């Protein structure tokens, strides 16, 4: 940036979901106003998903919108949050309850930045990658099954292929439904239970991808309980999630607490939670689930040693 004759104004944010608040966004806005940013000024979001979400939200509301560029440096951000234009912050009652749809001018991804991450962050990002195979691309799911060991070792060619295909799938879905009125909702697979677990853990015990990994398996279990998919589909999902190094086990929270947390999510209509349920690998359906069905499933699954921690 400096070589282009531009003097950047750095804004250093505290990492982690707990800083993803309106207060932090206000701090960003204070810097923009103090340095007299104009509508032609630009924000560059360099970091993980939390940085991108907050920088994008600040860009969307400062002077009713200034341009921004996403430069994601975590796997979750590279394959998911930087693509699609969702921005926002958390509320004390739920994740991502405050936000906007605001597309970046560009997304610049360098997979080599993943080498700067702790192993836990890379593994967590694999949950979003696996999600794409389940919701939209059976062949990609099979590719992940074959190459998971190399992917975990961060073999450059494998990582580049996986990041590229993940972005392609998300871009295709978003292009068909930018405002999440229909098809884009399939991207929420794993996040209905996942977001609830993040919230119940105070955004500390589980990072986002870890919660989503559990959600992928447990929402498949719930789909099987509703006779939407076969046991074989559930076990395929469980196997790849655990091979990625992620947990498949539901933490020991009560059904009431999990349901209450899910109701505070934005994926609710008429008091019912709208979930995404795998029918088979590469295809999912969107549909509601009520409290009674959820509690019946939770009681049965809690008795199973393979489902609960």
Can you give a write-up of this model?
The chain is an alpha/beta fold and 309 residues long. The protein folds into 2 domains: 2-109, 3-Layer(aba) Sandwich (Rossmann fold), CATH 3.40.50.1970; 115-303, Dehydroquinate synthase-like, alpha domain (Up-down Bundle), CATH 1.20.1090.10. It is 48% helix and 14% strand. The protein contains 11 helices and 8 strands. The protein has helices spanning 22-34, 49-61, 75-81, 119-136, 138-152, 156-176, 191-200, 208-225, 231-243, 255-263, 291-302, and strands spanning 43-47, 68-72, 86-91, 94-101, 106-107, 268-269, 272-280, 283-289. The chain has a 3-stranded parallel β-sheet with strand order 1-2-5. A 3-stranded antiparallel β-sheet has the order 6-7-8. The mean pLDDT is 95.
List keywords for this structure.
three-stranded antiparallel sheet, Dehydroquinate synthase-like, alpha domain, 11 helices, 2 domains, Rossmann fold, 309 residues, alpha/beta
Q: What class would the helix/strand composition place it in?
A: alpha/beta
Q: In what order do the strands lie side by side in the largest sheet? A: 1-2-5
Portion of residues in helices?
40-55%
Strand content: 5-15%
Instruction: Report the radius of gyration as a whole number of Å.
Output: 19 Å
Under the CATH scheme, which architecture of the largest domain would be assigned? Up-down Bundle
Mean pLDDT: 95
Shape: globular
């Amino acid at each position: 940036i400096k070589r282009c004759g531009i003097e950047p104004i750095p804004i250093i944010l505290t990492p982690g979901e707990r800083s993803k608040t309106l207060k932090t966004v206000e701090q960003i806005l204070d810097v923009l106003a103090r340095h007299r940013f104009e509508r032609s000024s630009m924000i560059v979001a360099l970091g993980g998903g939390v940085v991108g979400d907050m920088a994008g939200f600040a860009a969307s509301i400062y002077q009713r919108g200034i341009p921004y560029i996403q430069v994601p440096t975590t796997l979750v951000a590279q394959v998911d949050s930087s693509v699609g234009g969702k921005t926002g912050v958390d509320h004390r009652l739920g994740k991502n309850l405050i936000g906007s749809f605001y597309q970046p001018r560009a997304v610049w991804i360098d997979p080599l930045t993943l080498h700067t991450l702790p192993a836990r962050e890379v593994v967590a990002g694999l949950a979003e990658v696996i999600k794409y195979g389940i919701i939209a691309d059976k062949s990609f799911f099979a590719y992940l099954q074959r190459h998971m060991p190399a992917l975990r070792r961060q073999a450059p060619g494998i990582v580049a292929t996986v990041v590229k295909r993940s972005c392609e799938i998300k871009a295709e879905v978003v292009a068909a439904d930018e405002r999440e009125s229909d098809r884009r909702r399939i991207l929420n697979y794993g996040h209905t239970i996942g977001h609830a677990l993040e919230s119940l853990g105070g955004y500390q015990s589980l990072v986002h991808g870890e919660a989503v990994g559990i959600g992928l398996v447990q929402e498949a279990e719930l789909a099987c309980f509703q006779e939407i998919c076969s046991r074989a589909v559930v076990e395929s999902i469980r196997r790849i999630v655990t091979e990625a190094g992620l947990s498949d086990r539901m933490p020991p929270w009560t059904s009431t607490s999990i349901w209450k947390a899910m109701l505070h999510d934005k994926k609710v209509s008429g008091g019912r939670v709208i979930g995404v349920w795998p029918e088979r690998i590469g295809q999912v359906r969107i549909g509601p689930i009520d409290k009674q069905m959820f509690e019946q499933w939770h009681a049965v699954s809690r008795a199973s040693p393979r489902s609960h921690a």
